[in-house]
Amino acid sequence: MELQENAQPPGSMVTEAVAQNAAVLIRKAYKRFDDSTVILRGFNMTVPKGTIYGLLGPSGCGKTTLLRALVDRTVLDAGMIAVAAKRKDNVGYMPQELGLYNDMNISETFHFFGRLYNMNYSKIKEQEKKLIPLLDLPSGDSIIGTLSGGQQRRTSFAVALLHDPELLILDEPTVGVDPLLSQTIWNHLIQLTTLHKKTIIITTHYIEEARQANIIGMMRSGVLLAEESPTELMRKHNSSHLEHVFLVLSERQQKQLDLQEVQEPYPVIDENQKRLPLLETEKVFNSQRFLAQLIKYLIWNKRNIPFLMLLLALPAALSFICHAVTTVNPTGLPIAIVSDEQSSCQLPKDYNCTHSGRPLSCTYIDLLRDKTFKIHRHQTFDSAKQSLLRGKTWGILHFAGNYTASVIQRIEEGQATPDGVVDASTVDVWLDMSNQWISNLLKRDLIFLTLEFFQNLLSECGYSPQVAYIPVRFEEAIYGDNIPVFGHYTSAGIICTFTFYLAVLFTVGSIMTEISVGLDRSLVAGMTVLEVVAAHGVIMFMLVGTQSFITMFLTYYVFGYPFHGSVTLIIILLFLIEVMGMAYGFMLSVVFDKEAIATYAGIGTVVMMFMTCGVVWPIEGMSTVLRSIAWAIPVQPTVESFRSILDRNWDITHPNVFAGYISSTIWTIIFCAIAYSVAKQKKICV
Ligand SMILES: Nc1ncnc2c1ncn2[C@@H]1O[C@H](COP(=O)(O)OP(=O)(O)OP(=O)(O)O)[C@@H](O)[C@H]1O
């Protein structure tokens, strides 16, 4: 007999197991979750080979924890376990919470677990044909999520039997099953032990049905009260009911506990003690198991087409919205005009240039209209001010009564123009400065418009228009446009943060579902964390990659946003952002126990990133402290890198570009390291 043990065993343990022909042997086992939840306190148990062992005990006494220890899903604090089965495919485990995927049908579920147990297609089909009628299951194409609780439980039982294991560990297989079918299950279990020499450990709340077991272990307060055949137990206690025997034994134990003045001390736990797994560790990567996981994700996507469509429509919608919202600078801004010369509208007598004959304030207003401003005329300054105070206009422009004459005089007399004339030739402007973007645009447009107005006038009057130029010449922009568009600036940040966010969201959803539904059962069946991560990665890159492609295609091809850099560099950068998002998603999934909290944390992070990554406001405009640590904020360097490639066509040798690649790689390593250590600490993947 070969035994695997989870601690370096004294030779006597193996000898004892061999002597007792035991399939499972537990000696002096201790386990607790905290001081108030002591599960095992010097627990002993012997399961002979080829028997049904019924483990009975009150709810919460630790039966599930004990079974989990047998399949390496939790470790003892002290003591020894020996299991005769060597490999994971020698053990069939049916957990209490089923561990099935609601979106798969029965047949797909068999194929998924069959592949994990290295079974080939025909063997799985053969078992499916046998198990469906045996357990009275509906047809193989019935979706698990639509089955009744009892049918789901039977499917879960069928999965445990699928690979014909030598040791079956069943956690309450008959809960919610009708009595006839429950009897069929027991008959099958009896057949398995008598004809096929299988060993079965079963927990049940129906104490009387455990009569059919060969041995009963009655568990209470961390120890076994009795371990004998049901008939022997009932004979010894002169009772015809196991319920009654359990009651008698429990009362006896309680009396003893009450009499004990000091409880036996819990052994000092050696945290550094290395516990070996009971069952052979699987190869860290197996292509068949990886494929099983991948197919499972594909099935999930196939069954959730509307959700998939939504995922793909989301980036398209975002691109459209961003384009529609930010693509042009604000236009049609309403402005109040008070012109004192409008009423007279008379031409000056000494007017000697080729002017059309209209008052110049009218020409100025025409130009404002051409530049899409909406003109609101007011007779008095007070009424104009009221319109601004009520938010109907963004500014007030006032022209003096002798504006035209003053402007002409100013042009003709140049430096000799009297102060009063200079004053009258100047347009007074009052602005609503409460909106920085609009007021800055207004200021900029009014300055350029006034320059244009004067240049036109100088030309008409036969002067060189260049005289009206401010002594600065803005040549063609080296990078970007001379009149920048806000949407072009923000596109890089939006794409980077959105790609990161989608990867986080998708990973959190997928991993949390795995953890809450079936990861435990898959791991018992031999799946490794690497295979889960790899399969998730493939699906995520397909989905998030398609999303990124849609966003990029719409933004830079359909909407024609400027794209000057290397497509390859951008694709690699987006890939690294996705990997970083995936790593962050893993971290959130293991740090938080609830999917909703992990999702909120993901959303919160992205909102903060939006503010700190230069998406809406440049890093150069942030507080000194934030600016000095901006390089260390995840995603921020990738946004800068993206922008530098896109707008400036810089290559990887430029520090701005390089920083994005390095930063995303380092953050990926940090997130993975945190996720790994938290998972280890929480024993999510022991
Ligand atoms: N990971 C854990 N962390 C903290 N406490 C835990 C953990 N797992 C189980 N427990 C606690 O350990 C105790 C035993 O739980 P367990 O599920 O093993 O009992 P059980 O005998 O199988 O109960 P039931 O018959 O109701 O299924 C319970 O009080 C439970 O809350």
UniProtKB/TrEMBL annotation:
InterPro entries: AAA+_ATPase (IPR003593), ABC2_TM (IPR013525), ABC_transporter-like_ATP-bd (IPR003439), P-loop_NTPase (IPR027417). The keyword Transmembrane helix applies. Keywords: ATP-binding, Membrane, Nucleotide-binding, Transmembrane, Transmembrane helix. It is found in: Membrane. Its main location: membrane. Residues 24-246 form the ABC transporter domain. GO terms for molecular function: ABC-type transporter activity; ATP binding; ATP hydrolysis activity. The chain crosses the membrane at residues 489-511, 523-543, 563-585, 597-619, 658-679. SMART domains: AAA. It is a multi-pass membrane protein. It holds the Pfam family ABC2_membrane_3. GO terms for cellular component: membrane. This is ABC protein subfamily ABCH. The gene is ABCH6.
